[in-house]
Amino acid sequence: MSATRVADGLExxxxxxxxxxxxxxxxxxxxxxxxxxxxxMLPVYTRYLTTTDYGVLDLINxxxxxxxxxxxxxxxxxxxxxxxxxxxxxxxxxxLLSTALLLLSASYAILAGxxxxxxxxxxxxxxxxxxxxTLLRIASGSLAWEGFILVPLAYLRIRExxxxxxxxxxxxxxxxxxxxxxxxxxxxxxxQGMLLSGLLANCVLxxxxxxxxxxxxxxxxxxxxxxxxxxxxxxxxxxxxxxFIVTYADRYFLQAAAGxxxxxxxxxxxxxxxxxxxxxxLPFSMVWGPLRFEVAKRPDRDRIYARCFxxxxxxxxxxxxxxxxxxxxxxxxxxxxxxxHAADIVPLLLAAYAFHAxxxxxxxxxxxxxxxxxxxxxxxxxxxxxxVCYWLWIPPLLGFGAALATLAAFAVRWAIVYSVSQWLWxxxxxxxxxxxxxxxxxxxVAVGLLLPGETLVESVGARLVMFAVLGVALWRLxxxxxxxxxxxxxxxxxxxxxxxxxxxxxxxxxxxxRDER
Length: 517
Hints:
Layout: E1 2-3, E2 6-7, E3 10-11, E4 15-16, H1 17-40, H2 42-48, H3 51-72, H4 76-86, H5 90-117, H6 119-127, H7 133-158, H8 162-184, H9 190-216, H10 223-233, H11 236-258, H12 260-295, H13 301-334, H14 346-361, H15 364-368, H16 373-397, H17 399-424, H18 431-450, H19 456-476, H20 482-493, H21 495-503
Antiparallel strand pairs: 1-4, 2-3
């Protein structure tokens, strides 16, 4: 399978999607492994951690990992990808990677040190007392090591060493999960054990990855590379701050309104939204992100964008319907009874992340026209909507109000991005089938959630019937062409052949065009 780049009426070397497909499968397998491990461990976590422990961990992770990394310069990683391919030779690339390593390790270490020193004050601010000081200090140590991990992992992605990337992440995951079991079950350390296992895993992984990078890339930082990275990455901090408000600020409102137990339940509900994003949107984005600009130069770009949007929507809505229908049954098996109410708000969060994925896909007009400040405007508009709705809805509705506010914010963000993008650079999307599918999914999920299910078998059986109804609708709705339907029929009888056609195979004698060290 290939796409041909078209520029100024001339064709250049075809771009082979098989290379992208193979890399996406490896990354997708790694993502799936990490998520599967997290859900397999859920019975342990929900039995050896209280809802309060769960809420405390979520607030610490949000505060130290998500909020702090915005200010520590995590957006500089995007600059690494941009300027690595813009560099004219190995010397400039080495300088870029060395400078990024220096900047990120220094910024993360400085912020981690500040958190360590101010841990009593942060504990009082977040939890109303200084009792969580030790937990915050353990988490700050883990954060300090993150600065040494980011650049080596970015280097693996640049050099298309996806297998090494997944091996490194899987090794860290395995070590952390093993330590979690030890600290939680025999020692009963609760939230402190979870944070300590993360710190120790980073302490092991960071030196290994850092040594690997320094063996391949001589340490040669430069001022020019620093100016490039900071000039590119610093403006992105504002949009990251806005999305942090939309994604995580509801925890602080919940903490103030009802305490850590309410935050814990909501955090568990949110994992289903993250799961939809991780399994449906993230693997697709890793492939589509660079390819969409190449498609923009083709005369048939509308058809390609439209078909890819249909494919993305089908995956999002099918997986989202499955998660919404079976969330309660899953928690009934995997979690303690105190966590069952987390399933009540899962459908709202899944809908929110569907809008999030749509906005990412349909921002192409803004990106092609290089009017990225419109994305910042959309993100901050969503943040304002989220903040107001959190303030109005969380005190009376708690988790339901937080989920409803999140849905409203992501919907507003999509509406702005889509409208502006279509104004700047119109694309003829195939909306008819997508809208009809959204309506069917809404009805199927609503009916499925209302069906009785006193026992687990009855509940699963009833919801399987509704999911089968969705499957029939998928086939009958105007979503797929005749050729696509024929390919789907063949996939049932010859899945390996169809998969080989989709991802391609390495070409004999293919040239490795990676740069010299």
